[in-house]
Write a structure and sequence with these properties.
single chain, Jelly Rolls, 2 domains, seven-stranded antiparallel β-sheet, five-stranded antiparallel β-sheet, 51% strand, elongated
């Protein structure tokens, strides 16, 4: 019959751990029972585009994501522009936009905006002097169940009518908890 491991005291008040274990648990009630461990599985999604997304000059385009790298809880509907929060809580939202030189190579400015329920919450303008470029950003946002997130892009290339978001671009959401 296996022996139960002893509880080892921590240098922190009200914390203990099992001997030969790296797991510490708080015990504010003064008992020596180990509380049941609960592990919340990972919840999130990452979507990509498998085609060049045309962005006409001086026009905002909401990027459509047609490929799911993963989607644990139906954050994304196939072919949609949106990642939707299934429950209220804090979310890590991240995106990476890669611009292609398929439309030509001219100096221009480009703008990327993160939209929540259709309104911009983070936006930046970027001047380009090269053919290709990458822009990444991430932020933590509080969301209600049903709030949705989108990425909007725009560009103004002198003498060029269309720029392209390329297939290295992605958009992700991770549930962090309440």
């Amino acid at each position: 019959m296996p022996q139960r491991e002893r509880v080892v005291e921590s240098p922190f008040k009200h914390h203990r751990k099992w001997r030969n274990s790296s797991l510490w648990y708080g015990n504010l009630l003064g008992t020596h029972e180990v509380p049941a461990l609960t592990t919340k599985p990972f919840s999130g999604a990452k979507v990509k585009t498998s085609v060049l997304v045309p962005v006409p000059a001086n026009t905002s385009v909401i990027v459509s994501w047609n490929t799911e790298a993963f989607d644990t809880d139906n954050y994304h509907a196939a072919g949609s522009t949106r990642l939707t929060a299934p429950v209220a809580g804090k979310y890590l939202i991240a995106y990476h936009i890669s611009w292609s030189d398929a439309g030509g190579c001219l100096d221009s400015w480009r703008q990327i905006s993160l939209l929540v329920n259709g309104a911009s919450v983070k936006s930046g303008n970027y001047d380009w002097t090269t053919c290709q470029g990458n822009i990444s950003a991430s932020l933590v946002l509080q969301a209600a169940a049903g709030d949705y997130f989108e990425v909007s892009v725009a560009q103004d290339p002198p003498g060029m009518e269309v720029g392209y978001v390329d297939t290295n671009s992605w958009f992700s959401i991770v549930y962090l908890g309440n």
